[in-house]
Design a protein that fits this description.
17 helices
Length: about 400
């Protein structure tokens, strides 16, 4: 229930930020700020939030407060349409501020989940939560999109405002659901910590061979995934010549494939291990980019047919990545100072989040910003993803003790 409510908030508010900003008059430069500034805020706040969360006996308090604070910010985001001057500047500032409680929620929820779930139950619980979130992510974007399409003129902005305002009652319900979790389940690791402990935690983490191995694999997989974030839409629209309906169709079909296969990945994790499921997710990323590369080489109807088929197959493995990433991380970090360990890990990944999309665009622009440049860039990204897949398979196979999840 908690995951569904949070996903509804993200679907109604966060996922429509660019569209809302555009309808308020944002330029391409403004949209660039909206895309680039929030990750920087997350990068700067993750470790301080990790320290704070580790100091609290009940991490669900932080989860509840962050969800509530996010909804308050979104209410103010909705109110920016009432401004007559500087509303885009105010909107950008508010969306940057929104990333603070969002970062705190994501970091504290991971530690909270680790505290309230037994290792033997984590795969089952997390797979069910992910499955329900995926279902919401399929249905509600279609509903919200149809409502926005049906509205006209200033009515579209009003619909956006309603979406943002709905974040508040949804967050209240989310807090009520969290309040009903097991009150006896608390974290005993409440020693006071400070910024000086960051260096110690980093030393402990990087002294752990399992963590170093996982971090290396995760970094390569993440970098390969992030490199085409700013390019994929251009490849679809400019070079595969897909229209809005076709792109929506492939997105929905891919999401349905993820929903259908998630249960299978969950069952498979009990026999092959959660690391094997992570490798499947990495393989899906490699297949998606490879299918785009091959599609750019093809012409005629075969181009679209090939892309549809293999994009859906590759996308179905994304749910394996969603399911396995957090569980793999919890498997390799120490029990003490979990929030800080998770924050350190996420800070490293967030740095790649800031850098890699721009690196992909830089390579594409340097090669000439044409179809040949896109083909070469996608080929390079596909190679990085294939390397990530190979590393994930090696990581799984080198430690047979982790092939079966702890029962």
């Amino acid at each position: 229930m908690e995951g569904v409510l949070y996903t509804l908030i993200i679907t109604l508010a966060h996922n429509n930020n660019n569209l809302y900003a555009t309808r308020l008059g944002a330029t391409s430069s403004d949209l660039g700020f909206i895309a680039s500034l929030p990750p920087v805020v997350g990068f700067l706040t993750l470790i301080p939030f990790g320290i704070m969360t580790d100091h609290l006996r009940k991490k669900k308090t932080v989860v509840m407060l962050s969800a509530f604070a996010l909804s308050i910010v979104y209410v103010f985001v909705g109110m920016t349409a009432f401004l007559t001057t500087d509303r885009i500047s105010v909107l950008i500032i508010l969306l940057v501020i929104a990333n603070i409680p969002m970062t705190l929620y994501n970091s504290s929820w991971q530690a909270f989940f680790s505290d309230v779930s037994l290792p033997s139950d984590r795969t089952m619980i997390y797979s069910y939560r992910t499955k329900m979130n995926t279902a919401v992510g399929i249905v509600f974007p279609l509903i919200t999109g149809m409502i926005l399409t049906a509205a006209s003129g200033q009515g579209k902005i009003l619909v956006h405002q309603i979406y943002y305002f709905l974040a508040f009652p949804l967050a209240l319900c989310q807090c009520l659901v969290l309040h009903k979790t097991d009150k006896q389940t608390v974290c005993e690791d409440t020693d006071k910590i400070s910024f000086s402990d960051v260096r110690r935690s980093i030393s402990v983490l990087f002294a752990s061979k399992p963590f170093r191995a996982f971090l290396l694999v995760a970094l390569v997989v993440y970098c390969g995934w992030e490199l085409d974030w700013s390019l994929y839409f251009q490849a679809q629209f400019r070079y595969l010549h897909l229209n809005e309906t076709q792109m929506s169709f492939i997105a929905v079909i891919s999401a349905i494939a993820q929903f259908i296969t998630l249960g299978y990945w969950s069952r498979l994790s009990h026999t092959k291990g959660i690391r094997f499921i992570f490798a499947i997710g990495a393989g899906g990323f490699a297949l998606c980019c490879t299918s785009m590369f091959v599609s750019l080489l093809l012409t005629g109807d075969m181009q679209h047919v090939f892309y549809y088929v293999f994009q859906c197959i590759g996308s179905s493995a994304y749910s394996a990545f969603q399911l396995s990433l957090l569980l793999c991380l919890l498997d390799v970090i120490p029990e003490r100072k979990k929030s800080l360990s998770i924050a350190i890990y996420n800070t490293i990944l967030l740095f790649t989040n800031i850098l890699m999309p721009y690196l992909g665009v830089f390579v594409y622009n340097s090669l000439g910003e044409n179809q040949k440049a896109m083909l070469i860039t996608m080929g390079m990204i596909a190679l990085v993803r294939i390397i990530g897949f190979i590393l994930a398979i090696m990581w799984w196979s080198t430690n047979k003790a982790h092939r079966k999840f702890v029962q």
